[in-house]
Automatic annotation (TrEMBL):
<dbReference type="Pfam" id="PF13601">
    <property type="entry name" value="HTH_34"/>
</dbReference>
<keyword id="KW-0238">DNA-binding</keyword>
<feature type="domain" description="HTH marR-type">
    <location>
        <begin position="1"/>
        <end position="108"/>
    </location>
</feature>
<dbReference type="InterPro" id="IPR027395">
    <property type="entry name" value="WH_DNA-bd_dom"/>
</dbReference>
<protein>
    <submittedName>
        <fullName>DNA-binding transcriptional regulator, MarR family</fullName>
    </submittedName>
</protein>
<dbReference type="GO" id="GO:0003677">
    <property type="term" value="F:DNA binding"/>
</dbReference>
<dbReference type="InterPro" id="IPR036388">
    <property type="entry name" value="WH-like_DNA-bd_sf"/>
</dbReference>
<dbReference type="InterPro" id="IPR011991">
    <property type="entry name" value="ArsR-like_HTH"/>
</dbReference>
<dbReference type="InterPro" id="IPR001845">
    <property type="entry name" value="HTH_ArsR_DNA-bd_dom"/>
</dbReference>
<dbReference type="InterPro" id="IPR000835">
    <property type="entry name" value="HTH_MarR-typ"/>
</dbReference>
<dbReference type="InterPro" id="IPR036390">
    <property type="entry name" value="WH_DNA-bd_sf"/>
</dbReference>
Length: 108
C-alpha cells in the first residue's frame, strides 16, 4: 500500500507548472534563450524545429505575456533579436524549479 503521507508531502511541495511554458516548442525556445543575452530568429528556428509561422505565434504569445522581447537585429535589418525579459527570466527559473521538484520526486 502506498505511503499516503509521502504523496501528500509531494503534492504540497509541488508548484503548478506554467502552461505557457510547458508546450514543447516554447520550452525549447525558452531553454535556448535562458543562457543567452539574446538569440536571433533563425537560431530559434533551428533549435525548435518548428515552422516560421509557428515560431512567430509562440513568440507573440510569450511577448504578450511579457516573457520575451522581440526587437530588430543590430546587424541584419530584416532580422529579429529575441531576449527574455527580467520578469521572463524569473518566471522561467520558477518553472524550472517546479519541474525539477517533480522530476526529483519521481526518481525518489
Amino acid at each position: 500500500m502506498p505511503d499516503d503521507d509521502g504523496a501528500e508531502d509531494a503534492a504540497v511541495s509541488r508548484q503548478p507548472l506554467n502552461p505557457l511554458f510547458h508546450e514543447p516548442a516554447r520550452l525549447a525556445l525558452l531553454s535556448a534563450l535562458a543562457p543567452a543575452e539574446y538569440t536571433d530568429f533563425a537560431s530559434l528556428l533551428r533549435i525548435t524545429g518548428v515552422s516560421k509561422s509557428a515560431l512567430s505565434k509562440h513568440l507573440s504569445a510569450l511577448a504578450d505575456a511579457g516573457v520575451v522581447e522581440v526587437g530588430k537585429s543590430d546587424t541584419d535589418r530584416r532580422g529579429r533579436r529575441i531576449a527574455l525579459t527580467a520578469e521572463g527570466r524569473v518566471a522561467f527559473d520558477s518553472y524550472l524549479d517546479a519541474l525539477t521538484a517533480i522530476v526529483q520526486n519521481a526518481r525518489g
